[in-house]
Write a structure and sequence with these properties.
Helix content is 39%, strand content 20%. By secondary structure, the chain is of the alpha+beta class. A hairpin with a 4-residue loop joins strand 9 (271-282) and strand 10 (287-298).
């Protein structure tokens, strides 16, 4: 989906169409928070997701800043996903605004299918999406981003060298800021330049697993299947305080609330867990975790809260706290 959160806001508030919109946090750029989505109008000013709201405001003071309304976005997402399921049941859900579809068993031209999907989504939600069609997930992901917004791009196997190799290495899954910076230092900026490196060099620099992945990814090779069902490894919640705090009662009350949210989610999804981990990030961004394993898997808010507070007591809270979080792992599905 194109600039999904911002597009949903523009759809329900037509007067915002064409304006730079930033969705994130409480919607107040003077307070702590990060950009969740920026409209394409806002992106022209250099605003992007994960950027602090205050930075976004400096780049574009005239932008409309809105709070995240996750429930509304989830409703729009469900409408889109329901449309996709009418085309194929082989779908890998990649989150609220993205999915992979296996259309290999549909006896129609891929472009025709994609155009119908785009039309159905627009007619029923008023939102646009960008679709990439390719032989595998890696290439389809890259391709979906090549003509945003409202794009439709098809890449064939014999076009990898001519159409993919000139793109930035950052376009590859698994290439984050650190890998990109390292590759830049050794003169590698494009996917094609990465493809020129021998596998021995990549394994030496990045280890066997990641080096092997980068070698294949640069050549457009990806044999990963669509995962149509997955089991969560943990349930977690965390929150960044509006202002760094050393107040024990505020920290404890926040942790209790996060624990309640996590256990509610576990009960709703039918999971029990036994390893409770508390994360604390201090004002200087130093981050520590403490964990406790409960004897028997549980979804009891009281038991999980007690374990979380046992963890909290093991922190030396000599510095102010910026963020606190709780995670319950070791999940098992209730029969």
């Amino acid at each position: 989906m194109d600039a999904f959160f911002a597009s949903v806001e523009q759809k329900r508030h037509p007067e915002l169409t064409g304006k730079p919109i930033v969705v994130g946090g409480s919607g107040d750029p003077t307070k702590r928070g990060v950009v969740s989505t920026a409209s394409y109008e806002a992106r022209r000013f250099g605003i992007h997701s994960a950027m602090p709201l205050r930075t976004a405001y400096k780049l574009c003071p005239d932008a409309v800043f809105l709070p995240v309304d996750y429930e509304e976005y989830q409703r729009a997402s469900e409408k889109v996903k329901n449309i996709l399921r009418e085309f194929t049941t082989v779908i890998e859900d990649m989150g609220i605004d993205e999915a992979f579809l296996d259309i290999s068993q549909i006896n129609r031209h891929p472009e025709e299918i994609a155009k119908e999907i785009k039309k159905r989504i627009y007619d029923e939600t008023g939102l646009t999406c960008s679709i990439g069609i390719a032989p595998n997930k890696l290439l389809a992901k890259i391709t979906s981003d090549m003509q945003k917004p409202d794009g439709l791009t098809i890449i064939k196997e014999d076009e990898i060298e001519s159409r993919i190799w000139q793109l930035s290495v950052r376009k590859l899954w698994g290439v984050g800021p650190k890998t990109e910076a390292y590759l830049k230092n050794i003169g590698i900026k494009t996917i094609g330049e990465l493809a020129s490196l021998p596998i021995d060099k990549l394994v030496e620099e990045f280890g066997e697993s990641h080096g092997d992945y980068l070698y294949n990814a640069a050549r457009g090779i990806d044999e990963s299947p669509l995962v149509t069902h997955w089991e969560p490894k943990s349930h977690s919640r965390e929150i960044t305080f509006e202002k760094d705090t050393g107040n024990w009662q505020v920290i404890a009350k926040t942790l209790a609330g996060l624990t309640r949210d996590v256990t509610d989610e576990m009960k709703e999804s039918g999971y029990k867990g036994k390893t409770v981990t508390v994360k604390v990030r201090f004002s200087d961004f130093e981050t520590h975790t403490r964990a406790k394993t409960i004897l028997k898997s549980t979804d009891s808010e009281e038991e999980i809260r007690k374990a979380a507070f046992d963890c909290l007591k093991r922190f030396e809270l000599k510095k102010k706290v910026r963020l606190i979080g709780v995670r319950v792992g070791g999940l098992i599905k209730e029969p």
